[in-house]
Structures are given as C-alpha cells and as structure tokens.
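2 proteins. here.
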Amino acid sequence: MKSFRKLIPVALVALAASATMHAATTDMVGGRWKISYDDQTRMVSLAKDGQAVLSGVYAKFKVNADTVKTTSYTDVTFSDATVNPATGRARKYTITYKADDKPTVEQNFYLMADKDYLLTEVVLSDGGAQVASNYICPIYSEAKNLFLPQDANNRFLTVPFDNDGFVTYGSYPLSRGQSLTSMASGRYARDSVSFEVTAVFNGVTQKGLVLGSVSHDTWKSAVRLTGSPLTQGHLSKLEVFSGMTHPATRDHYSRGEGVPGYLQPHGTVKGTEVKSAMMMVGLFDDWRTGMETYGDVNAQIAPKRPYNGPAIYGWNSWGGMEKHCNYEGVLSVSDFIKTNLMDKGWAKDEVVYVGLDSWDNMNWDERKAFADRCHANGQKAGIYWTPFNDWSGSDSRTVEGNNGYTYGQARVKVDGKTMTGRVDPTSPASLSRMNYYVSKFRECGFEYIKLDFINEGIKEADSFYNPEITTGVQAYNYGMNYLRELCGDDIILDLSISPLFPAQYAEARRISCDAWGEMWHTSYMMNSLSFGWWLNRVYCYNDPDHLCMGNRSEAENISRMTTAAVCGYCILGDNLATEGSYIGTPISQEKTIKFTNYPEVNKIISMGKSFRPAYGHKLYGANNSVDLFQLEVEDSYLIAHFNYSVGDQNVSLDLAELGIDANNVDLDRSIECWTNQKVDISNGKLNYKSFNDRARLFRLYKK
C-alpha cells in the first residue's frame, strides 16, 4: 500500500514496511484516517473521512524535572509496518524524534481499516540506557479544534476515577455564556479533567469525539480539556496523558486545618523503554456508540473476566442490617428468601446469592453453617472482604493465618509516613493474608465475594515491597491478579468501592457509591448509569447496589427496582430477618415480597443487560442524571423513564427520536411492565403519565 504522501513537493512515495525517510510535510494514511506531519511546526493533525478532527498535536513528557516537547526536536524520521495488536490488523506509523541531549521518542499511530478510531502511544528510549518518567502525554494541543456544530449543545463528559465519596459523572457545556444557566454560566471557557476517558459531543446530533486510555497495566491516565468562551463550542486546549494524581485518585493527603495538603506524585516508570498508555482517538456519528466502542477496545486488550451463567439475583446484608449481622438473623433471611421469594417464582431460572456484609459478629463455624443453610435452600452463599485494608491500624498486630507476619510489614509509606489501614498489594504479608482468607471462604462454601475499598490498592506510595513495582496501577494489578488466581473461575467477584480500570478481575462492579431506597439515591445511582452504562463492555454486569424498599413511597420503590432492570442485576437489601438480634420491619419484608413479584419486570432483569441513555445533554434531578433510557433486544424495544422528583407530567415521547419505527410496534402485546397495561401510541408518539418519583418501564414488542 502507499504509506506516505509528501506534500512539498506534491508526490506520492511508496515505502517498504521497514523503510525510513526524511520529509518536509508528510501524510500517513490508513483506513478512514489521515495523519499529517508539518515539519515547520513539528506538529501533526488528524483527519477522518476528510474531516479535520485535531490539529496542532504534539507529544510531551517529563524526564527528571524537565518537561520535553517533541516540537523541540529537529531530527525527525518516519517508518511504517503492518502489525497485529489485540485490536486487529493495523498499519503502524512511527514518527521518531532524536537529539543528542534528549531521549529518543517514538510517536506511534495505529490505523485500522474501516474503524472510527485510531490508537496512539509514545515510547521513550535512550540507546539501551535506562529512561525514567512519571508523565507522558501522547496528545497535546493548544490549537482551536472544532469538529462539532458551533452551538450551545456541545458537551464534554467528565468520568470519575472511582466510585468513592458519592462522586458523580458530569456532562458540561463546552462553552460558557451569560445566557446559559445549567452548570456553565459565566464568561469564561470550561476547563476540567476526566479520568481515563472523555467524550466531546453535540447533544442534538449525537456526533462526538471519544478520547481515552485503553491500556491500564502501568499508568493512571486522564484527559484535561478547555472549551471556548461564549457559545463558539470549540476545544482550545487538549491534554491526553499518562501520569495523573489528583484528590479524585485519592492521592491527596490532608495535613491538618490551615496546612496545605500533600499530593503524592505519580510513580516513576523506569526501563530501557518507557511507554505511555495506549490512547484511543475516535470520531463517531453517535458518541454513545463511541463510548461502547471504547469499552470494547479495552476488553480486546484486557479481556473481561468471563461469566457464562444465568443472570445474578440475590441479597446483601448491608442495606438493611448494616453492622447488625447476626447468626440467627442471616439463617432466617436465607429461609425467608426461599419461602417468600424463590418458591413464589422470583429468580426461578437464575442463581440467587445470599451475601454477608460486615460479618465480624459471627465466627467461622457460624459462617460455614450459614453457607450450608443457603445451599440447602437452593442458594449460593456470598461474603464481603477488603483485601487492601486493615482497619485496626496496629503495626504489631499479627497477620491472620499464623504466617509470621505483622501488619507493620504489610503497610506502605507516603511522604515518609506509614499509612494506617492500607496494605501493600505486593508484600508477602498481604499475599499471605489473601491466601488465608480465600482459603477460609472456600472451606465455608462461599461462591461470591463483594470486594470493597479496593481503590486503596491503586494509590501511589513512596515505594512498594516488590522493587519492580513503581506505580499504584502496577501494584493494584499485581495484587488483583494474585487474588483472581486464588479465587479461580468458580467464585464470583463483585467490586464495590473501586477504580473503573483495570477491569479484568471481576464479573461485576457496583456502578455508583452506596444507594438505598429514597429517590435521591436512585437519581444518584442513575447518574452513574447515564454516563457509565458502557462499562458492561469491560465487566459482565453493572451492579446498581442493594435495592432497598424500607419506609420509602411505593413510587420510590418502583423506581429503585427499575434500576435493577436497566442494569440487569438484582441484589436486594432490606432486612429480611425474622429471628435473631436484629429483626426486620414488616413493611420492608412485605414490600420486598411485593416488588419482586412483577413477572414482566423480572423478565427484563433476567436479560442481564444495561440500557443506554437516550441523550447526554439533558439532565434532571439533584444529581444531574439522564431520565430516559432504551435498549433494543431481538423481539422488542425497551424504554425506561425516571421522574426525578419533578412532579406529575403528561409525556408524549417521539419514538422516531429513539430510532424506533412506531409502525413496527405490535400494540396488542406491548405493555408498561409495572402496570401490565397496553401502551398508547398515536402519530408515532408514546403517550403516558409520568408520576412524581416513579419510573416507567415499557416493552414495545416488534411485529
């Protein structure tokens, strides 16, 4: 194929796979993408299908205390080759920058046939000598980049690093203007950071640019971007980089009132070659497809933990019992679920996991007896654990398992200070502790582990026990890989407080922080699904957390249970104990029986699929969540609408805007799943009443 095109003079020059050349201005073409290098500016521009996407792009990095830009190099060469990475056959173009007093830089671009995206990375080397860096930015631009219409509907997505502290996703206007009142008033351009990935999109056309890291073995990565003033709607600064620490990565430490805090820097990566994370740049007709594609690319590079079983249903003790978990009580919960739910048809063809949280009030014999009771009731037993925490804070305390270690040998240091409550994922003491607990869980018969506060394992530290590990992400991968191998394929792992990535160690991840039964919690959890639904591409399931009915209104109960349908995962949370020291309330138990007995809703839950947001620029409720979601399956279109405390409303929903042909809907079979009533569709619109705090769940069968 013709790999490069010289523009000055205008000529096409074909190169062999390993050939190199010097050029003035050069095009690198592959599939739908063209990379153009300008020797005068020493920058590149990216175009797709003839449309300019990004211009003024260069790479930069840190070595020692210096920041080096590729624009400072004058010896620049080009080469190309055909390669076969995990994402499929690609044409790899390399721009090599050399200088006597600087590391050699390889700026790689991977272009694939018929893809809406390309991949890029930066590799540093120094003739076989060691290179060290804690920051590499493959894509940096301060040019005015405009690939969307100039209007106030342009948005950018902010993705949180983890799900701790009730953090939320954001969909913010790319520009600010005095006429804008929603989240972006003022005269200055937006400036923000998104962790690992972002989308810059137009809310009306849905067209969008997706940028983010797709490898997560070494670096914490992020995207910093600045929008435009007023309503011009362009990017004025873009930084897609590896080497991020921030209060939101939990690497910031307070030093007391009135004293500046301490931000632990990202660990330094060392070697004869140092690579950034692989970054994806994709321009999509629909940003939602772009985010799903981003998830798929991540899963190609690090395949998700496989699960081929039926949909997951169950119960977790924390929602209603919290710290009051007791032996007699949890035995009665297992019996309650068997008698009042399973025997009445709930989760008839699925797997029911009954899980203990905060189980310190029980001894190992009682835990095993609980698991035995679950098995006798046709259930599987689950348990809770925090592999990277020690809550005692005592250095002299012996590590469980009679292995000769103390917790002082397991802890890490930050800024010279020992971190109480946090253990090193690479230390023998921590690994021995894992051996002990997983062995005990297996002896008891537990087949599901809720892993909590594992974001502690990805924080940076002064150093780690394993000298080859120098970053928090490397330490996390080391510890989680060890844990995954201990658990094998017969224990389900569900991550609770955790980073988004790496994602290959668990079947499920709780998509938000804690969520109980009130509408505020439902809207908070739905903020995470609004902009994180695509995570079911890297995990098997998005977990909406424990579903609690309690003393909330029935409208709120319906909404909370609908979150199970739109996530495809159902773990109940009310206190269902009828015996023991902490008995549940009749209203909680009665509501649990009632709201698990809606067959049409259960059919949708059992699909195990996450719904997609209908848009990303219209937000509702206290947590700025999307209110409308959809999913197309083989025989029907599914629509969920959440009313986040905005009062009763009459809705006339244009189905064409959701890509649904109203003429293809079978009106005789199509229903609203909570009422089992037939739908009202006229003139291409679905008409219904939206009640305050209550979700609607429609199944429109195809003809």
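next one coming up
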Amino acid sequence: MKKIISFALMMTLITGCVRFQNQNATPTASSTPLPVSPTSTLSTSRLTVCLGAEPNSLYPFGELNAPAKSVLAAIYNGPINTVDYEYQPVILTGLPSLENGDAEITRATVQPQSIVVDADGNLVNLETGVRVKPAGCRSDDCIITYDGTDAIEMDQMIVTFRMRPDLTWSDGTPIVADDSIYAFEIQADTDTNLYLIERTQIYEAADTHVLQWFGLPGFVDPTYFTNFFHPAPKHLWSKFSAEELSSIDIASRTPTGWGPYMVKEWIPNDHITLTKNPYYFRLRDGFPKTDEIIFRFISEPDVALSELIAGRCDVLDPSINLENHVGLLQEMQSAEQAQAFVTTGMSVEWLGLGINPASYDNGYNLQQDRPNYFGDVYTRQAIAYCLNRQAIVDNVLFGFTPVPASYVPPSHPTYDSNLKAIPYDPEVGNSLLEQAGWQDHDDNPSTPRRAVNVRNVAYNALLELNYYTTSTAQRRQVAAILEESLAECGIGLNVQYLSQNELYSPNGLLFGRQFDLAEYALGVESVEPACHWFTSFEIPNAENDFIGTNITGFNNQAYDTACRNAQFALRDEQAYLNEYRQTQIIFAEELPAIPLFYRLRIAAARPEVCGYVLDATANPMSNIEAMGIGETCQK
C-alpha cells in the first residue's frame, strides 16, 4: 500500500537517500519514416515537463539558458550527443576516426605569411620567430622557430562527415550537406563558435550528404570528430540576414528541426507545446512514444514539487533547483509518489585558496601585502586534512558524490584511479601546520594559531582567514561544517556571505583575486577534462581585464605543460591519458584549490513516467523520444 505524505510534511522533510537512475541505452534507426498526421490517433498522449525558467530563445546558435537547451533537445536531437562522457552520433552514420579512414593527418606545405596555428594553439601569420610544430611533431620536444624564408610542412587534419540519407526537416524538406554549410556561414557572419571557425580552412560538401572539414595547418584537434556544424534550414532562413535570425520567430521561437517534436505554440510566461514530428527518422521504430510535450515554466522548487504531486508536472527538469529537496524526494520516492534521479557531472564546488592575490603581481611586500598564508604547500595540504568534506557529502549531499581527489569525475575515462582523496584527519593537519611554522601558542586548538617561522608571513600573525561565498542554503551548510572542522586545527574563519553580483563581479573579490578563501563552482559544457581551469594562462589580471578561471593565481610550469600536451593529444593516443593524469598528479600534490564535491544534477518524475534518463553528461531531455506516461509506456 502506498504511503501518503501530506503537503506540510512534504515541504519540511530533508533526510534520506534518493535512488540513482542511470540508463544510457537508446535504440537507433536506419529506415526512412513515412509522414503521418500528428492528429491521426483518436486520443493524444501528453507529457508535461516543468522547467526552472522560460527559455531565453530557441535559436540554436544563440547564448542559451538551460531550459532552452532542454527544449531544443526535443526539436533537434543531436547532431552528436554526449552520454556517459562519450560521444555518440545521432544524425551521422558514424563518428569519423583515424582508424576508419574518415579522418586523416596529412602533410601540408605552408608558405611564409600563411595563417597557421602555432605551437601554443594561437592563430598567427607564419613569419620569422614564430614557434611551430613541423609535420610529424606532436610534442614540445620538436618545436622549431621559423626562420622566415622557406616553405615548411605542417600537419593538417581532414575529416569527413557522413550524414544519414533519411533525414528530413519537420516540414518534409530533405536535409542535405548544404544545410550544414549554411549553418557554418551563419556562425561565421555572426561571430559565433569563432574558436573552431577561425581554425577551419575549408568546410565543403563532398556529396549530397557528405561533408569535409579541413583544419588550418598546425591545428590537430583532439575532438575533430565533433567538427560537424549543426544544420540549419537554408530553404526557410536564407531569405533573412544572419544578424536577423536570432530575433525573428521562425528561428528563435518556432525553429524547424529534424528531431522527434516540433513547436506548436509558445505562450509567453506560461508554456511551450511541442507536437510529434511526422517526418522524424525514427518514426517507424515507434518513436517518439508521446504525441505531445508541454514545457511549463516554474521557477520555485516548492511550487514545482507541489505540481508534481498534483499531476500537473510529469517531469521536473534539472533546471529547477532541487538541491535543497533531496531528502524530501527520497521520502516521496519511498511513498511511491515520485521517481528521483541524481547524478554528478563536470561541475565542481571549490574552496579556492588565495595563493597569489592580485596585490602580489608587482612583487610581494611583507609589510604592506596580505600575509602569504598559502605560499607553503604544507599549509595548503594541512587545510585539506582539516576540512571535513565527508560530513558535507553525507549530510548535505546525502552520499551521492565521493569526496573528490581530482578535478576530473571518477567515472571519466581520464580519471587517475591511483589518486586518493585527502581524508579528514585533524591530527595530520595539525602536524603539517607545525611543520609550516604555524604554532599553537596557547595549547588551545579552538583559537587561531600564530606564525612563528612561516616563510613570507610576519611573526605572530594569526591564522585567521576571510571566507567568502554566496548566501544559498547549501553554501551556508557547507560553511558551517568547514568552520567547525578547521577550528579543530587552530584555523579561524571569518565567514562572509555575499550576493552573486558582489562575489562574481568583474575585478571583484573572486576575479580580482582579493580573498583568502572562497567557495565557488566551476563547470564546463564539454566532456573534455578542464585542466585549463588552473593554468597560468587563466589567471585573471589587469592585462586580461581580470577574465579567467584560475582565481587562486596558481602558477606551475609543469602543470601548464602537461595540460597543454593533453589538450593537443588525440583521444585514442596514449598521450591523451598520460598527460591528463599527469595534471591530476600535480594538482593533488600542489593543491591550487581544494575540490569540495562534485555538484549534483537532480530531476524528478511521477511514478507513472517511463523512459526518463538522467546522465552525467547528456542533455536532460536527450532521451525525450523514449519518454511516456501510463499506457504510452506499453507502446
């Protein structure tokens, strides 16, 4: 018999553990679908997905918020999806590779003054003094400095993409290679996706459904197999300029796609309705299962959960912030009132250590600058031992994430399983602090230690640190746990809660590198490891207008080299694994920042919903064609 949870109780329960859902299997099709009318059935099956906000646009080449990306997954499906940290073709017959011959590295003859990619990955003219990798060179050991006279040979990538021949726009028009070229031209004209476009020498059609991408000489791209440009309906959009597309309804509110659904209506501030695409290429396989999808916009998590219980939301998208309701979802699941889905991904919650504040950029002054608390690696390691991160995982995140040992998630192919997370051990932490010169002057661990023989720290300075973060409920819980555990090692905290604007403002406390400790999050859209987060090139400073992710100011040549080598290696090369793992080893030893936990992605659904999948790296609606409710699940 089902247990019933009252609404009052539902709003207060905060304990327990939610079942982890992770299913990645999605059938594929090879046959051409026959167009059918969306209204050909006597009754229309519907599924309501509630989003945390209204999409800011449905223009596929714009700056999109998370709800927009969820809706677009239903309209487009692909062209290449990422599932469980791996790439999967959707509208391509397969992914090109060096092994299958659809990718190759050739020797290109390059004349002086030609545009190339240099040894550091920058676009440059080939002229005297430029450092480049000649053909066959894949490491820093064989870099040459160009003499400015003769032509040289450099590596050039050529990649062939083969589209499925049965693809059709939702208005019945066949999708061809020229639609992808048109998309490339749109983005080139509107300064979108410039990193790849600027490194593209040629993008052309080799056949009706075959395209070829030529990279600039020197650009050996590890993710070359993704350099296929998301097609755009040239037959509908080409009458408008590239600049107009982002603001006109045909591209931004009712875009024509090839996915399982198409836009029927968009009622501002309320909902978007999608109907089944009669030309979807997987229609003969029984997809999509549901005739109509309604996306509602609900910003308040409490309201969204109430609507789920009432049956007015069938699925709660991860764009609804359910971090503070994990315990409640566990109770609802136990009572068979909901299904809960929890996973982690590439987003990490960090405790940043102010190793090199911006005030040190003109040289450290012992008398004028903030004490150099973190210059000694023993101090940084001691702080890690004195942080009760396991208590955070157990009490705030309900055990859904391990204590991190790296910036790379444990399930990622490049994760170094030999690394072990630093455990909470105040005894070791206290010992390391003693070695660094921080003394417990009064034999009372609850009072801050004092500097006795700490390099670049004035004698008798207190180990009392300013800790900055935002005022969300979760971060308040984390700060309280860390404050208590650090006190066990004689480390005092002055916790200050700031607004998002205050903490993340340009040249503010974080990006202006004006903090002792700061709790913040970093995430990436890609599934490639984000070693660049802590390279010296990412240090925010006056020269780059304080833009960059390395807010701690960590500067390590060996780390920079390993990260650069990893980013230039191909996925199927041993160097790809070796170099990414080397960055993790250096990171674990040097601790430029301390990873607190991998952030959770959380979704929920009514018990009657089937087919929903929440994957660590996939779009949360990437499997929407397989989703159904009630009798629809029997199809």
